[in-house]
Amino acid sequence: MIGRRVTHRMADGVRVPGTWRHAFIRNGDYFLTDLFIYADGLVDCWGLVTLDEFEQKLRSGWVATELPEGARASGHDLAGWTCHEPHTWLTPEVMLAEVRDTIDQLNGRPDSTDRCLAAVDAFLADRTEERRADVRAAYDAIPVTQRRYALGDMDRRDEPLKVLVAGPGGRTDEWPDDPVTQEEYDDAIAFLEDRARWITERSSRVPADGPATPHAPGIHVPHTYPLKPSDAQNKKSLRTDFPAPVDIDGVTYPSAAHAYWALSTADPAARTAITNADTAAAAARLAAEAPQRDGWEHTRTAVMHRLLRAKYAQHPDLADFLLSTADATLVYADADSAFWGDNAGRGRNWLGRLLELVRSELHARRADLG
After folding, report:
1. What is residue 311's predicted lDDT score, i.e. its pLDDT?
2. DSSP summary character for residue 353
3. Please, what is the Cα angle at 356 between 353 and 358, to 5 degrees?
4. With contact defined as beta carbons under 8 Å apart, do 217 and 53 qualify?
5. Alpha-carbon separation of residue 82 from 68, 86, 278 (angstroms)
6. 73: which strand partners?
7. DSSP-assigned letter for residue 235
8. Which residues of the chain have pLDDT under 70?
9. DSSP string, 25-78
10. 336 with 346: CB under 8 angstroms?
11. Are 196 and 121 in contact (CB under 8 A)?
């Protein structure tokens, strides 16, 4: 749950909402620290990572969900202690499910609890065993730490929901020795019907403009060098130095990066040398030694947009991969530029943003909208 634990990070003047929770980081000893979760699917666990990378941190024990006997732990600048008979409530699976729920909540989308309640509504409209099985599966998908107040009733908590899931003759976690009676089951159904009636009578809200399905998690586009020719459709193909030739005004450049650096100078000889450079890194070095075009800092973003458009128009296979990223936030790393790269939240991520814009344009064209 988000509660009042609200925070944010800034990305090029844009406020990305987030929240935080306590967690243990294992870096030799165990350190009690703050885990920051953001609406774009990035998580800061002593370093900004994507959700997939966060799962790897969990599986490896970097983000610790259990403390062994005798483990040394500390809270920074507060205290240190040695664990004796430690007990934790989390597993990597549970924490990952909680973080996924938190990202859904930050975006105003249905989380696992909401999806379970939607399954309950579907069951009330069509009371078959198949629908009840859907409720059971949705309930099991709720992190065990959150299976308390899905129904929003402080008195009965989730007892009616658990009785529905168990069914007549089944057993609940609270009363494993006492099977659910038909009377208890009927009472639970009556409660759920009353709840549904009350919700229906509430004034409806106008939905926000956005996708009906959850957003794709953020994608980190790492800085890699040197890149080699490849037919593979993967994250590397999103980079400007990926060896995909682009034709601009009748000149073919080995990559979008070559074209960018060549266009940054008005010197014809330097432009030819940059175009013929063996690598994009060599092209960048030659451009740094050449006289820069007047006003380049004011036009470079538009030029890069044009080059990315050309790259994906001229390489449909790469366009297919870009489209496959759905609506994911593209976090572009660039060790040489805080303007083009996100660089752990310290850069402006213009390349990631332009890739998202080109992706949207590709979607629009394929939908006959532009």
Report:
1. 97
2. H
3. 110
4. no
5. 10, 10, 56
6. 30, 81
7. G
8. 1-4, 202-215, 225-232, 370
9. EEESEEEEEEEEEETTS-EESSSEE-HHHHHHHHHHTSEES---TT-EEEETTT
10. no
11. yes
Q: Are 43 and 37 in contact (CB under 8 A)?
A: yes
Q: 234: which DSSP letter?
A: S
| DSSP label of 141 | T
Q: Are β-strands 330-332 and 219-221 bridged in parallel, bridged antiparallel, or unpaired?
A: parallel
Helix (H, G, I), strand (E, B) or coil at 265: strand
Q: What is the pLDDT of residue 88?
A: 86
2: Cβ–Cβ under 8 A, 6 or more apart, which residues? 19, 102, 105, 106
CA–CA dist 243, 260 (Å, integer): 13
pLDDT in tens, 277-302: 999 999 999 999 999 999 999 999 99
What DSSP state is assigned to residue 203? P
Joined together, the tokens standing for residue 325 give: 């990223």
User: Any alpha helices (H) in the chain, and if so which ranges?
Assistant: 51-60, 92-106, 112-125, 129-140, 159-166, 182-201, 256-263, 268-275, 280-289, 296-314, 316-324, 350-366
Look at residue 211 in the predicted model and tell me its pLDDT.
64
Token readout for 199 is 């919700």
Residues 6+ apart with CB under 8 A from 128: none
Tokens 């859907």, residue?
134
Query: What tokens appear for 304 in the block?
Result: 């890069």
Q: Which residues pair with 36 in a beta bridge?
A: 20, 44
Distance, CA of 9 to CA of 49 (rounded, Å):
14
Alpha-carbon distances of 263 from 275, 287, 352, rounded to whole Å: 9, 9, 21
- Sequence-separated (6 or more) residues with CB below 8 Å from residue 344: 47, 48
DSSP state of 181: P
* Distance, CA of 116 to CA of 130 (rounded, Å): 14
CB distance 311 to 324 below 8 Å? no
| Alpha carbons 321 and 50: distance in angstroms, whole number | 19
Burial of 188 (0-12, 13-18, 19+ CB in 10 A): buried
